[in-house]
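Problem: given the chain below (54 residues), write out its structure.
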Amino acid sequence: MFSVKLNGGRRINGILRGFDPFMNLVIDETIEETKTGEKHAIGMVVSYSLYSFP
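Solution.
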């Protein structure tokens, strides 16, 4: 199980399927947890890094 804290007080939990040196992530069987404790099954998530490198 892999957990990532996102902006807005959200957290996603799932199975890490892949990543690269730029911190792009592929997470499968993902469940989103909101700040209020609600949980939503959202399936596969592809998270792109918002950082810029020189």
